[in-house]
Design a protein that fits this description.
This protein is mainly alpha-helical and 80 residues long. The chain contains 4 helices and no strands.
């Protein structure tokens, strides 16, 4: 699980950092303006995390309990 969090963090940095550098170097925005441009994008990410978090939690509980029957059927019935 820790490796997954690290990969997601690196992916987010890999997407946001180049855009932030573009805003500052090419469009000559200050760091504050570039941050304010990128700030509204956190709202959709938060809503997406709420929607995706519940199914992912169900899958992780199935994998952690090593219940392969539950893992294969997690879309049909909730895991114990």
């Amino acid at each position: 699980m820790t490796a997954l969090v690290a990969l997601v963090s690196m992916a987010m940095i890999g997407l946001v950092l180049p855009f932030n550098l573009h805003l500052q170097s090419v469009l000559h925005m200050s760091a504050l303006k570039a941050g304010l441009v990128l700030a509204p994008s956190s709202l959709p990410r938060g809503r997406t995390a709420l929607v995706c978090g519940h199914p992912l939690g169900r899958v992780c509980r199935c994998v952690n309990s090593l219940s392969w029957k539950a893992l294969l059927g997690f879309l049909i019935a909730p895991c114990p």
